[in-house]
Amino acid sequence: MILLLVLWLCCIYFTNQETCSSPGDLPAPQMFLGKASSSQGDTVVMKCKIPALFPFTRVIFCKDGKEIAIQPMKESKFAYDLPYEISTSSSGNFYCLYEHEDNLNHKTLSRLSTAQHLSVTGLSSKSVLGITIPSTLVLVALCSLLVTRGFGY
Asked: φ, ψ for residue 31 (rounded to 5)?
């Protein structure tokens, strides 16, 4: 029983890896990043634009050869957005592809979009403000306390 579970998990793992590393023959989508570099804590929006003349059933976003998100096809929609929160390990190459599944469950993949590189530059201004504002408030409170107590005299 445990052996079957391990085999099943391995199949899922290698199937997910295969999607992003061995694309198919359909025309490639276009991938756009909101920013090429961002800071930790920021959110970058990735956009995958599918060619309008080709049928598809889902859009797949990838980072460095691994799936990071899947979105199902929506009627008459050809551009798909993925908000991506930046962490220290977010630097890498991002791309997308799409998949078409026919009535016989035969799946066909597109070629990969051109990879877009994202660089993580450091802490975001939101993170800095999140540290600066409370520190300033503590400092003001401490100074106020020292002034009202007369510096201990």
From this structure: -115, 135
Are 31 and 48 in contact, with CB atoms under 8 Å apart?
yes
Prediction pTM value: 0.67
Count of helices and strands (H, E) across the chain: 2, 9
Give which of 24, 37, 35, 53 is closest to 113, Cα–Cα. 24
Q: Are 41 and 127 in contact (CB under 8 A)?
A: yes
Angle ∠(87,114,43) on CA atoms, nearest 5? 25
pLDDT tens digits, one per residue of 99-120: 999 889 899 999 999 999 999 8
Phi, psi at 108, each rounded to 5°: -125, 130
Q: Where are the alpha helices (DSSP H) in the chain?
A: 2-21, 125-148
What secondary structure letter does DSSP report for 130? H
